[in-house]
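Morning. Coffee machine broken again, so started the prediction first thing and wrote up yesterday's gels while waiting. Chain of 351 residues, entered below exactly as on the submission form.
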Amino acid sequence: MIYFKTINSLLLLTALFILFSCATYAQKSAPADDKSPSIPAWADNPHKFYPKELYIVGVGTGDTRKAGEDNAIGTIAKVFQSDVKVDQTLIENYMESEGKSGSDLSFTSQMLNRTSVASQQKLKNIRIEKSQFCSTDGLHYVLAVLDRAETEELYKKDIENNDNKISEYFKNYKNSPNKLNKFAFLSKAKTITDINEILRQQYQIISVTGEEVPASIKKSELDKEMRSLLDQISVALTSTGETPVEVGDYVKETVGKIGFKIVESSGDFIFKYSLDLQPANLGRKNTTGYNWKLTIEVKDNINNYSLKAFNINSRTIGISQEAARAKIMNKVKNELNNNFYKQFLNYINSL
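Came back before lunch.
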């Protein structure tokens, strides 16, 4: 069964922010700084001016106006922290494959795989309403505002658009005669469902009406279908040369993340892996190391296709052979669980 990892909270909050940059609502021009020797009244009680049932507000301070704005926006962002767990690599690969196919992804979905923080100037739905420089403490006070009703409509539209895609992929899953194509379609449906779970959670935080956006297909139904399908797709593992036993364990971990069943022979996939270690002549005292090469060849027996081999060539040094070898094993594990995993998902999503 596919394993999941928690998306970094900053990534989710960033995703929310950049969403607003794609919205069609015009941002009001940021007000000029007022100046006063005292802290503004709205800094202590912002909801007196912007009722909680209509707005989400954030008050920020900083040595500069920009720092105050970023702090105010960050205060709003904390409201949208999510505990929904998804596999970020699955989301990124889905976005990449859909982008290549020319699919029109929803604004919010596109943003879930971004890692850079958008500047306030690009945000359309979070407005900087008030700003004041307090000469007593030398700080800029900033009030940022998010209109609940406007933002609720943005979320509702994105959730509904995503739900239509889920239905489309699920239909393709049902109609596909090839179990690997079935997996590709069902995996995409589940990935968008995970995205929508995050959006629904945030939608409920924003919502003024309290209405729920119904799902055409329940997540439990998709999970049930996936469990059944994963049991039908198998992977056979084989090593070559004097490959250390640990490498086989790492390959098994990667297959486990995907969820396919491991068999002794005649699998739907064959993963042929090897790690060649050659002592490196460094010519230095108290330092040793290895030149090493990791290779994984994947054969898709369902579609009778061989993937381009995954190769890593590197040199690793250490104070001893044992230390250098331990470093190599750690690097090999990371390569398999990240880059190779991503490369294999890219292939699945291309089907």
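Residues 233 and 260 are 6 Å apart (CA to CA). Going to sketch it on the whiteboard this afternoon.
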